[in-house]
Amino acid sequence: MFAVASSVTAEVIGLTLNGAFSIKSTGPTTVQMLVGTLIAYALALAVTAGFLRYARRHSLYPFAAYLLVLGGLVVAAVATGVLSAS
Q1: Burial status of residue 52 (CB atoms within 10 A of its CB: 0-12, 13-18, 19 or more)
Q2: Which end of the chain, N or C, is more open, meaning fewer C-beta atoms within 10 Å of its C-beta?
Q3: How confident is the model at residue 27 (pLDDT cuts 50, 70, 90)?
Q4: What is the rounded CA–CA span in Å between residue 38 and residue 75?
């Protein structure tokens, strides 16, 4: 799956490094790992900046309520055996 995502990314940005992005590879190459890491880093920065901008302007009470409700549902599901704890 990583090879496919890296291959698609390479095609989008025009990288062709002598087959380094071949889907037929046995595992991710150093170049693929580097590209994947850089993309993940850039996305993490963008998402974090967006979340912090949102958090400065809005209340997080709805998110806290959502977590409490979801947590309660998970605890209830585990307690009744609907969901396995392991």
Answers
A1: exposed
A2: C
A3: confident
A4: 38
